[in-house]
Automatic annotation (TrEMBL):
Transmembrane helix found in the keyword field: no
Molecular functions per Gene Ontology: ATP binding; sequence-specific DNA binding
Record's keyword annotation contains Zinc-finger: no
Cited InterPro entries: AAA+_ATPase, AAA_lid_NorR, GAF-like_dom_sf, Homeodomain-like_sf, HTH_Fis, P-loop_NTPase, PAS-like_dom_sf, Sigma_54_int
SMART domains: AAA
Protein name per its UniProtKB record: Transcriptional regulator of acetoin/glycerol metabolism
Length: 644
């Protein structure tokens, strides 16, 4: 009873740890209930191992040769962890943070951090080769994470040794491809209870990224599929990963995959992927390759999947499979996103705007893309990222219109554990933080609620973000691309979009032309066909003429679907797409479009086309006439008609 009373009065864990320490010294026994359960169990183990509070910190001296050998033996882990350690240490530089990587015995492999902290680290036995196992140094984040094989946070005098009670340490285990413990990643800062919660999410995010990188590099000879129950989580540290061989057998899964599938690793290993997906592996792979992804409806969950890796070299496969693999590789190449040059190739005004946008991105200017639905805003955003200096960093896309209003804020900024009822254990890292060092693409920015616009503006001005429910502020270093199909200036006039935010986002504005106003329709068609693996196909003149007359309300997306359907309807040996290969629905659309009711639209489209081509040809009427395949006289006549 007296303990319960004490516990209520002293809810501060540091105070409780101090009292536990005093009682232990006084009574020779650790009183139960004073420490958090994980720490109490660890203190009990430390006592059993004979560690004492006052034990000195001296590191057993490892020779330079031993350290070299240790590093050599853990080369892969060290190199895969390096980018994350670098990122973490820059993020926590202000708090004099040290980032430590240890092996599965809690022996330090490498340290990174603020120079002053590192100079001091030696006196705390924080150096490569020093062992921080729990049975030699008592409760500490490295050693305890190794014993528990789960993340641990140890603040101040929760550490067993008095000598390290000046630190707050947060560690996360790093698991190998078979779920075995490989090592531990740790962030050590000065003892500070307020900050340590934020440290936990940063360390866990980094550890998951390291595990995913290890997974991908380990299965380079095999097929890797990424999946999640929410499409926005693909490409994030929280995506599920599954490696399969070309027979479709499951070779490995990461922890997130097991959680998403609600099955243990042991229950899935070596089974055919069909047991999860209900589809033959070839069907699934073809779908993934052709459509850049697949949606799987399982019994109680929908999974969004993407092909993360397809092996370049396939060893020892029977001929039939080799030829399937070749096909698959070809399809994958074709399914790749178009490059920036491809997007603007035959459209000089667009090409120029894209060149400027790329320069802008590399000089930290935000880019605002505007265009009707299906004009390729996301394609352009990805192409800009892929060609920017941040190409090897994350590209995180958020569709502001697709996320319910109440969730956008937590999605963007993340939240601390316990920030609100129902918040996920361990909190959630927001999109801003996930995109750090890379590019954040905010699609449909015009649909962002006003209250959130104010917060976004503040983040962009201060270049810092902090999760909901408080916690550590994180410095932001992101390229920002926003897109909308709305006319933002009108939204500003209507007071539904903040004017100051508009100017903040519109560093470089790019207007993506509607398909009906593009003079390079045939180039786009050729590109689409080649990406479908059908570059050899021709389009009948009659079809092309109809396409040119059509208004394409769905723009390139609609054109892509029409072409896909046409290719699918070709009979064996046919090499030309004619009207017979268009769907009845679409032919009806085309007919309606050319009927008198739509005549006005067509006229406007025609004029838009002529004007745009004239602009591209810098006012040269002859060149415009040649490009459009009509006479100079027709151009003059149509322009006069319009002026009349
Ligand atoms: N330049 C291009 N060349 C080939 N295909 C393209 C090009 N631009 C877009 N596409 C294709 O058109 C489709 C729509 O592109 P995207 O999603 O980028 O458009 P969007 O403007 O972002 O559309 P929405 O506003 O509806 O989100 C995609 O399937 C994409 O592959």
């Amino acid at each position: 009873m007296p303990y319960k009373l004490e516990q209520r009065i002293y809810s501060d864990p540091l105070h409780d740890a101090q009292r536990a320490r005093e009682r232990l010294l006084l009574e020779g026994e650790l009183p139960s209930g004073f420490l958090r359960a994980q720490i109490e169990a660890s203190w009990q183990r430390s006592l059993k191992a004979g560690v004492r509070f006052k034990d000195p910190l001296v590191a057993q001296q490892s020779s330079a040769c031993d350290v070299l050998e240790l590093k050599e033996n853990h080369q892969t882990l060290i190199s895969m962890a390096a980018p994350e350690m670098d990122h973490l240490s820059r993020q926590f530089n202000r708090d004099k943070g040290m980032v430590i990587l240890a092996n599965d015995q809690a022996t330090i492999l490498s340290l990174l951090g603020d120079r002053r902290s590192l100079n001091n680290a030696g006196s705390y036995a924080l150096q490569s080769g020093a062992c921080w196992s729990e049975d030699t140094r008592g409760t500490n984040a490295l050693g305890t994470a190794v014993v528990d094989a789960k993340p641990v946070m140890i603040n101040g005098n929760e550490h067993f040794l008095d000598g390290v009670s000046c630190f707050s340490c947060t560690s996360s285990p790093i698991m190998g491809v078979n779920g075995q413990l490989l090592g531990v990643l740790d962030l050590t800062t000065e003892a500070n209870e307020q900050h340590i919660q934020g440290n936990m999410s940063a360390v866990q995010l980094a550890a998951r990224n390291i595990e995913n990188r290890l997974f991908i590099s380990h299965f380079q000879e095999h097929v890797i599929i990424a999946f999640h129950s929410r499409s926005e989580y693909l490409h994030s540290a929280w995506q599920g990963l599954i490696a399969i061989d070309l027979e479709g057998n499951i070779l490995a899964l990461n922890e997130q995959a097991c959680q998403l599938l609600k099955k243990s690793r042991e229950n899935l290993l070596n089974l055919p992927i069909e047991t999860i997906t209900g589809q033959a592996p070839t069907v699934l792979l073809n779908q993934l390759l052709r459509n850049n992804g697949a949606t799987l409806q399982l019994r109680d969950v929908v999974l969004y999947c993407e092909l993360l890796h397809f092996p370049r070299q396939l060893k020892g496969l029977p001929a039939r499979k080799e030829s399937f693999a070749k096909d698959a590789r070809k399809l994958k190449r074709q399914a790749n996103h178009p490059s920036l040059q491809k997007v603007g190739a035959e459209h000089p005004r667009l090409a120029k705007a894209l060149r400027m946008a790329l320069k802008g991105i590399d000089h930290d200017l935000p880019v605002l893309l505007n265009g009707e639905t299906g004009t390729g805003k996301e394609v352009v955003a990805r192409a800009l990222h892929n060609q920017s200096q941040r190409a090897d960093k994350p590209f995180i896309a958020v569709n502001c219109a697709a996320i319910p209003e109440g969730l956008i804020e937590s999605e963007l900024f993340g939240y601390r554990e316990g920030a609100f009822t129902g918040s996920r254990k361990g909190g959630m890292v927001g999109r801003f933080q996930q995109a750090n060092s890379g590019t954040l693409f905010l699609d449909e920015i015009g649909d962002m609620p006003l209250a959130l616009q104010a917060r976004l503006l503040r983040v962009l001005q201060e270049r810092k973000v902090s999760p909901l429910g408080g916690g550590e502020e994180v410095d932001l270093d992101i390229a920002l691309i926003c897109a909308t199909h709305r006319d933002i200036k009108t939204l500003v006039k209507e007071d539904t979009f903040r004017e100051d935010l508009y100017y903040r986002l519109n560093g470089v504005g790019v207007q993506l032309p509607a398909l009906r106003a593009r003079s390079d329709l045939d180039v786009l068609i050729a590109d689409l066909l080649s990406r479908m693996g059908a570059a050899h196909l021709k389009i009948h003149d009659e079809v092309l003429a109809m396409f040119r007359q059509y208004a394409w309300p769905g723009n390139i997306r609609q054109l892509e679907m029409v072409m896909k359907a046409a290719v699918a309807f070709l009979d064996e040996g046919e090499k030309e797409i004619t009207i017979d290969h268009l769907t009845d629905d679409f032919i009806e659309e085309l007919n309606t479009n050319s009927s008198s009711g739509r005549a006005a639209t067509i006229k406007v489209t025609e004029l838009e086309l002529i004007r745009n081509t004239l602009e591209q040809c810098e006012g040269n009427v002859s060149a415009t006439a040649t490009t459009l395949g009509i006479s100079r006289a027709t151009i003059y006549r149509k322009l006069r008609e319009c002026e009349a």
